[in-house]
């Protein structure tokens, strides 16, 4: 959900999530739920104003996407989740949207749009000549220029300079942080290796985004995008999240544990586990 919501903010989705989404449950696998986008025409600067035929670009849509969705609203009411969401949002802003001062030649979204225009331009010209349009007629190049000038750059300024620097609603960029390998259970009482776990604790005063970090050593794991550990809390990393929750001994399901089932391999009774960040730096090591 964290990755989904930050993605909706990035594209400034103005039509989610009172409707226009899929909620998928991996019934035969993990049993977990996942939100997926659907119907994303009101994104990248377009808002509903009583009709679709509006050329105005909007850059100041808020960040609390889906607050009118009962499930998402309930998540926003949880302080730890709000902290996780805001930390991940800042990471996505820094890595994908990029700050207003980013040199033009380094802007990723602009580069992708230029590449798409180059590929699609011949067909886009044929389409433009064959179909009517509303408002001011626009070629594909005209539309991209409008998006860049009247949405994307103002959107950067709104998120980075107003909601972050001025209002403090969005946190500053994540600097050097520490995450501790707090505990390892390689020998659960059941003997089932799917009940093994590695516990990571965040000692920092703020949430820490560990997206694309990895565990190495006796086993391996790569943390998926949107993985954030709230301040003072613990993430339990296992081979199988569903089996972990069915443990008979604590930590287990029903205790409000944060768990991911992403470990590849089996922990031997004695060994070493290392935690690496996305830049290949070892953050912590535990010999158990």
β-strand percent reads 15-25%
N- to C-terminal separation?
A: 33 Å
SSE ordering: HEEHHHHEEEEEEEHEEE
Instruction: Give the low-pLDDT segments.
Output: none
Radius of gyration: 22 Å
Structural domain tally = 2
Oligomeric state of the chains in view: single chain
Helix/strand-derived class?
alpha+beta
Shape: elongated
Average residue pLDDT: 95
Count, helices: 6
Work out the number of β strands. 12
Give a quick account of the main beta sheet: strands, pairing sense, barrel closure.
4 strands, mixed
Helix content: 25-40%
Task: Enumerate the strands of the largest sheet in spatial order, edge to edge or round the barrel.
Answer: 3-4-9-10
What does this structure look like?
- This protein has 288 residues and is α+β, with helices and mostly antiparallel strands.
- It folds into 2 domains: 2-166, no CATH class; 180-287, Sandwich (Immunoglobulin-like).
- The protein is 31% helix and 18% strand.
- Strands 3-4-9-10 form a 4-stranded mixed sheet.
- Helix 1 packs across helix 3 and helix 4 (108-130) packs antiparallel against helix 5 (140-166).
- The longest helix is centred in the middle third of the chain and has 27 residues, at 140-166.
């Amino acid at each position: 959900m964290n990755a989904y919501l930050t993605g909706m903010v990035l594209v400034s989705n103005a039509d989610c999530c009172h409707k226009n989404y899929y909620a998928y449950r991996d019934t035969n696998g993990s049993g977990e739920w996942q939100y997926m986008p659907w119907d994303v025409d009101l994104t990248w600067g377009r808002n509903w104003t009583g009709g679709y035929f509006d050329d105005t670009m909007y850059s100041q849509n808020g960040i609390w996407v889906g607050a009118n969705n009962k499930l998402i609203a309930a998540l926003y009411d949880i302080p730890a989740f709000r902290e996780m969401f805001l930390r991940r949002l800042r990471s996505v802003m820094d890595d994908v949207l990029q700050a207003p001062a980013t040199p033009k030649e380094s802007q990723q979204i602009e580069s992708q749009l230029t590449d798409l225009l180059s590929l699609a331009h011949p067909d886009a010209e044929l389409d433009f000549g064959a179909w009517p349009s509303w408002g001011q007629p626009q070629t594909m190049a005209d539309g991209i220029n409008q998006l860049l000038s009247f949405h994307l750059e103002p959107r950067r300024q709104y998120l980075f300079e107003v909601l972050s620097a001025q209002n403090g609603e969005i946190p500053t960029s994540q600097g050097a942080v520490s995450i501790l390998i707090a505990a390892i259970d390689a020998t659960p009482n059941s003997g089932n290796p799917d009940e093994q776990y590695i516990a990571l604790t965040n000692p920092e005063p703020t949430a820490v985004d560990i997206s694309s970090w990895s565990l190495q050593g006796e086993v391996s794991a790569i943390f998926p995008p949107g993985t954030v550990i709230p301040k003072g809390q613990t993430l339990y990393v296992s081979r199988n999240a569903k089996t972990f929750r069915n443990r008979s001994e604590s930590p287990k399901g029903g205790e409000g544990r944060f768990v991911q089932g992403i470990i590849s391999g089996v922990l031997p009774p004695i060994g070493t586990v290392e935690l690496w960040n996305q830049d290949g730096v070892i953050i912590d090591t535990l010999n158990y």
